[in-house]
What does this fold into?
Amino acid sequence: MTLGDVPLGTTVIVTAVGGEGAFRRRLMELGVLPGTRVELVRVAPLGDPLELRVRGCALSMRRDEARSIAVNRVPLDAAAEPTADVADAVGIVPNVPAAQ
It folds into this structure.
């Protein structure tokens, strides 16, 4: 599934960021990285652009650009922060401090 195909109000986790070099780099500079939660907050009246909530900030993006970002849905019972189950679903190893 891609970010451009996500229904309104859905929260997803980014699994891969595609696109051409400069565009992909800019998305990653804005915080759209694998493992990041993204919520589709609003869609313009004609369906483009999309307003996204990324790391607590609003980001607008064209639907075609959003289709270059692969995502997985967040389970409904998942907490606000990624848990081990959500991280496992997208192949992310959580940063766990070492025991002292």
Remarks:
- Residues 21-29 form the longest helix (9 residues).
- The first strand starts at residue 11 and ends at 17.
- Confidence is low (pLDDT under 50) at residues 83-87.
